[in-house]
Amino acid sequence: MKRYLLIWFIVLPILLVMVPAALVHFFSPGGEVAEPAHVPASAPGNQVTQELSSTSIKVYRTEKKVVETLPLETYITGVVAAEMPAEFELEALKAQALAARTYIVRRLNEGKFDDVPEGGQVLDTVRHQVYMDEGQRRERWKDQYEWKNQRITQAVKETAGIVLTYNGEPIDATFFSTSNGFTENSDEYWEKPIPYLKSVASPWDIQSPRYEETVIKSTAELEKDLGVKLVQEASTNGAWYRIERTTTGNRVGKISIGGKEFTGREFREKLNLNSSSFTMELKGSQVFITTKGYGHGVGMSQWGANGMAKNGKNAEQIVKYFYQGINLQDYTRILQV
Fold first, then answer.
1. NCBIfam families of this UniProt entry (predicted)?
2. 3-state secondary structure of 39
3. Which residue, of 16, 124, 140, 170, has the fewest CB within 10 Å?
């Protein structure tokens, strides 16, 4: 009898452990541990990250005139390093990584590369996205390379595989340096309405060194660049130009000068101004043009993103503020190549 009791005391604990485990195994779907349904953008090391090396980007190196094929995340690292100061807040750098990754994934999906020579998919200049390879970063940053590169790499890794989408498609994730205090509606600069590119306030940009600048041009230069003859009209109390329309983002929508009309964008591009937010003053034979902001003003302001990050906002909050109504999504579920 004692022998049976001894066996029972040995077997019972084993059964108490094995039976529940067996039930969990047999009644779980497939008998395997389920993967999490959502991987947040701030979670590094997820399974998707391991698949990214299979996606490559063909970058046309403008100076070398060759195409370099790079892993996607290596390319994103070089873009973030070139497009945003490494000194910026980590969450701002992560927002930049999300925008840069979205830009190239959208481009890959569209499959239109006829603006890139030699079989490349993207240029390494401001026409698309600026890209710096490791050698260029070492040369630019010198003894600060290690900490700056580590910071950029961290921002890219912590957003790996995530892009910004609207209705399930990667967005046109435009960005620029500095606003005049507001971003711009897409249709008021490019004449193309895009639902997620709406004007929002960006008061943080006042901290940017490019927030306000004044350039001086001679009247002769101005007339040549615009193809006009400056006149002071009595009908407008001696004014030599007139703002016909301002935009939602407080930029020049349309301007009349020398008998011609220009959109704010046309005027900015003809005179190579920092922004289409400007005022002008005529002093003798010189024109003083004061701009506010730096860039086209549509999408995410980089200095605005940095200001939001300093105020405690994370990357997801930043991109959802500048790109209205978007979602964050695993790029492998939407990439069509």
1. SpoIID_LytB, spore_II_D
2. coil
3. 16
